[in-house]
Request: fold
Amino acid sequence: MGQSKLLRSPLLVVALLLPITTTFANGFPTATPESQGVSSERLERFSAAMQSYIDNNLLAGTVSLISRNGKVIHAESQGWRDKDSGQAMTDDSIFFIMSMTKPIVSTALMMLYEEGHFLLTDPISKWIPELEAKQVIVQDQYGTHRVPPKRPITVRHVLSHTAGLDPAPEHLTEEEISRIERMDNLEDTLVNRATLPLAFHPGDEWQYGSSTDYVALLVERISGEPLKDFLQRRIFDPLQMEDTFYVVPPEKRNRVATVYSPTGPDQTIEFSRGPEYSDQPFFGSDYYGGTAGLFSTISDYWRFSQMILNGGELDGVRLLSPKTVNLMITNHTGDKYITVRGPGFNFGLGYGILADAGTAREPLTPGSFTWGGAWGTIFWADPVENMIGIMMTQITSYRHLNVRQETAVTAMQAIIDSYSNKPYSVKGYEVIK
Reply:
């Protein structure tokens, strides 16, 4: 489609002549911003914010999307998919979404939860018995030593990143350190790590790391099906996510966005890797994991996210019950804030949950759920405002930029009819302390 501004529509006279809802070739329903309580004039600030990063050579290009009430009110590609060759960014560009793989794989396990295969309180050793002999690293006045865990690792622990499965290397032997390295496939990697000690007693702390790989292995062992096949059959095909894969097919590889890296004192970008890297699983020749690995487009990820925000259903296809979605977007980490997403966030089952709007950098409503990828992609959903925001870009380090936060700031400020006093479709359960 080339560089596009699908829904920036200040030509209200024309807009009034068209139906409120239309559908573009990429399959999502669209509407004018004003019809959904959003100012199209204020949405111009969203586009300007993305363009400033491109103009200053801090990002090569972006694809962004905002929807409200299940209607896409902003979808825009800006800049370049490959800057050196002058290929414009397009709305169907394919991105390596890194950790935005985690909500999808976590959803797969929760689908098996709904089928009665386990409780969240079940120990994962029921399906991964190799983990039964785990010890815990403890530091006290007597030094550093290992003790039996106070409780087993449960399904809830691996979904909420509270299992302690990633011990610090300084507390390991050389032989144990050698076991951390990924092998060619997921199962061999995790079984090889089975003898490693835990960083803390399960449930005591929050630690971002390999937990969702164990979620992925649980999907495989409980379902008896390879993860990539389960995701394709149970999630991607039903939701018509036609451009989401662990390996991009050859005929679609020309749509993969080039990856850039910041360099020098001004952090301007330089080439990192081209589309050819997408021809095999990123972490190994047969490694289909849960922590990262998927490629996707903004329209595919919107379809998945809208399904969750709808309470588990999209276009007549139901993957989850609204009650299960509510459980997933509930705070499962208590008063443990998760620093990796910034201040003010707790964690649910596969999602970061905004708990404290007063300290968070994004002006989302408490209860909003979110996650991002290590190469700059970001997604959030605000159940109160019934709004989704997604921004895709490819940069290997982004912490010197505010682009992910500005995605939320510029979307929220465009709302002119807030739903904060109205019912909404899904909501995490209140945690009673």
Summary: The chain is about 25% helix and 20% strand. Residues 40-55 form the longest helix (16 residues). The longest strand covers residues 71-82. Residues 6-25 have pLDDT under 50 and may be disordered.
